[in-house]
Amino acid sequence: MDDVRVYGDFHRITPEIYEQIKDAIPFDQVQYDGDVLRVDHEGVYLMIDDFLETIRDLLPENGYGHVEYIDHLDWEVTRYTITPGKIEEKKVKVDNVLDAHMRDHGL
User: Fold this and answer.
1) Record's superkingdom (predicted)?
2) How far apart (Å, rounded) are the C-alpha atoms in residues 95 and 13?
3) Closest by alpha carbon to 22, among 56, 55, 59, 69?
4) Can you give the residue ranges of every domain in the chain?
5) pTM of structure
């Protein structure tokens, strides 16, 4: 089994922003369509903090992103929500993901 699975998407990434970040993208799989950047990684632990901070600082006013960092060894999911100037982080034990989702949505 791989150590981690990390995937996410960033919206309102202009070609100019993409040019500034493309060489710093730490993910194995990258898809960019001129507005949305999608990333994915399965394998060993991946350091993404610097990349998320760069995205945070470059996102335009209406930009946003989400990243799911699934740690298979610690059995934990870290959910990142990125908006201009802000990164929110929420950790959930994988065994508790459904319970947390239901609680967050009043179910």
Assistant:
1) Bacteria
2) 34
3) 55
4) 4-104
5) 0.84
The closest alpha carbon to 28, from 61, 50, 6, belongs to 6
Backbone angles phi, psi at 59, to 5 degrees: -60, 135
Is residue 77 within 8 Å of residue 99, measured between CB atoms?
Answer: no
> Can you tell me the distance from the alpha carbon of 41 to that of 25, in angstroms, rounded to the nearest whole number?
11
Name, in order, each residue with C-beta under 8 angstroms of 52's C-beta and a sequence gap of 6 or more: 67, 80, 82, 87
> The domain 4-104 belongs to what CATH superfamily?
Api92-like domains (3.30.70.1270)
Q: Is 5 exposed, middle or buried (0-12, 13-18, 19+ CB in 10 A)?
A: middle
Task: Give the pLDDT confidence of 7-46 residue by residue, as tens digits.
Answer: 999 999 999 999 999 999 999 999 999 999 999 999 999 9
